[in-house]
Specification:
- The chain has about 450 residues and is an alpha+beta fold.
- Helices cover about 60% and strands about 10% of the residues.
- The strands form two sheets. A six-stranded antiparallel sheet has the order 2-1-6-5-4-3. Strands 7-8 form a two-stranded antiparallel sheet.
- Helix 6 packs parallel to helix 12 and helix 7 packs antiparallel against helix 12.
- The longest helix has about 70 residues.
- Magnesium transporter that may mediate the influx of magnesium.
């Protein structure tokens, strides 16, 4: 084919931008700006998420670009704001693999997982889907009805913790680094790391939600089962079927959370990876202090962190905090909620056992009625046999066969009475035999 003017112009127009790109590095395409269509921070003095800046974000959700989702960012001081971020912005900010965002998607909506990454912790517990770092938490879909209590409770806790640390602690976070302060006094209470406070609140909200679901299940289950035991009907059976499906669904959700906690308790390495504050402070330490002095100056930059139900000096806590093999704080935290979930699971199993007992009782009732029907059918069969014998005799005498009994006067009544008495005697004999063989109930 010849080269026409259109083909020449199109080819040249395609080659010119490439030459311009290679010739001048300054003309390289700029990276896409980070999607930060953030609304104004939520008024923490308000009554909830809907007021203040939250209302503006709800209106922008309909106009957001494809792939952008609504997130809430809470820092360790309880300050929060709503933002619309896409997948790439979240990956760059939290430094997590792209596959971890699938765990927070709708496909794994009812799955439970707590994953530890280098700089973040991915939490997917029922309706709470969050990415927790050492300095902030990114919460997905914060305006859901189930998530709002978690957000309010976490904001109040972080605000209280931050104010108490500013008043009672000389450690102040400035510029993303903990400044050296004097050692804590003996007997002072220490707070959990930021990521464990978030995890504890998430587990508390989820366990409370599951407990309330089980309480509703118990309140609805026992009257329905008692009604079924009194009256076996199609309506009652349908109600029990719906109850069993609801029980199975709740049991699966409780079991998933319980199994995830049990998996973490069985692996100390995974628990050690969840200490984000520990790793963050070690990185800050190595960035600010010389290599030889860093190992001997640990106590000076450690914030106040407490062990559960314990009072220790700042130096002891600091030495234990930076020990990578020390997972006692998280272990005690997870064990408490594991026991609570195990108790919730046992309550569900007790309801299921009650359902099984009721079904066994109903089956016994149905078997008893079935046996009564079989006995009644056997009685009717014996009576039919006796009547059939009398019908046979009557049929034989109904034939046109010569017989002297036809010529005897008054013999009909005696003959019919004797035949009926014989058939009745036959019925009693067979019925007594069935009783003797225990084919019929007493």
């Amino acid at each position: 084919m010849g080269k026409g003017p259109f083909s020449f112009r199109r080819s040249s127009s395609r080659r010119r931008p490439k030459k311009a790109v290679h010739s001048s590095p300054s003309s390289s395409p700029q990276p896409p700006p980070q999607i930060s269509t953030s609304s104004p921070p939520i008024n923490n003095n308000g009554n909830g998420l809907v007021g203040g800046g939250g209302g503006g974000v709800v209106g922008k959700v309909k106009k957001k670009a494809g792939g952008a989702r609504l997130w809430m960012r809470l820092d360790r001081w309880g300050q929060s704001e709503l933002l619309e971020w896409d997948k790439n912005a979240i990956i760059r900010r939290a430094a997590i693999p792209a596959r971890d965002l699938r765990i927070l998607g709708p496909v794994f909506s009812h799955s439970s997982s707590i994953l530890a990454r280098e700089k973040a912790m991915v939490v997917n517990l029922e309706f709470i889907k969050a990415i927790v770092t050492a300095e902030e938490v990114l919460l997905l879909d914060p305006l859901r009805q189930e998530v709002i209590p978690f957000v309010d409770q976490l904001r109040k806790l972080l605000a209280k913790t931050g104010s108490s640390q500013l008043e009672n602690d000389g450690n102040v976070l400035r510029g993303g680094k903990w400044l050296p302060v004097s050692e804590a006094a003996e007997g002072e209470q220490y707070e959990l790391p930021f990521e464990f406070q978030v995890l504890e609140n998430a587990l508390e909200v989820v366990c409370t939600y599951l407990d309330s679901s089980v309480a509703d299940l118990e309140r609805d289950a026992y009257p329905v089962l008692d009604e079924l035991a009194r009256n076996v009907s199609t309506k009652n059976l349908e109600r029990v079927r719906s109850l069993k499906s609801n029980l199975t669904r709740i049991l699966a959700r409780v079991q998933k959370v319980r199994d995830e906690i049990e998996h973490l308790l069985d692996d100390n390495e995974d628990m050690a990876q969840l200490y984000l504050t520990r790793k963050w402070m070690q990185n800050q330490q190595f960035d600010t202090l010389p290599g030889g002095v860093a190992s001997n100056s640990t106590t000076a930059i450690v914030p106040h962190l407490r062990r559960l139900s314990s009072t220790r000096s700042g130096s002891v806590v600091s030495s234990n905090l930076l020990d990578d093999n020390d997972v006692e704080d998280l272990e005690m935290l997870l064990e408490a909620y594991f026991m609570q979930l195990d108790g919730t699971r046992n309550r569900i199993l007790s309801v299921r056992e009650y359902i099984d007992d009721t079904e066994d009782y109903v089956n016994i009732q149905l078997d008893n009625q079935r046996n009564e029907l079989i006995q009644f059918q056997l009685t009717l069969t014996i009576a039919s046999f006796a009547i059939a014998v009398e019908t046979l005799i009557a049929g034989l005498f109904g034939m046109n066969i010569p017989c002297t009994l036809y010529e005897t006067d008054g013999v009909f009544g005696y003959f019919v009475g004797g035949t009926s008495a014989g058939c009745l005697l036959l019925f009693l004999l067979i019925f007594g035999y069935a009783k003797w063989k225990k084919l019929l109930g007493s």
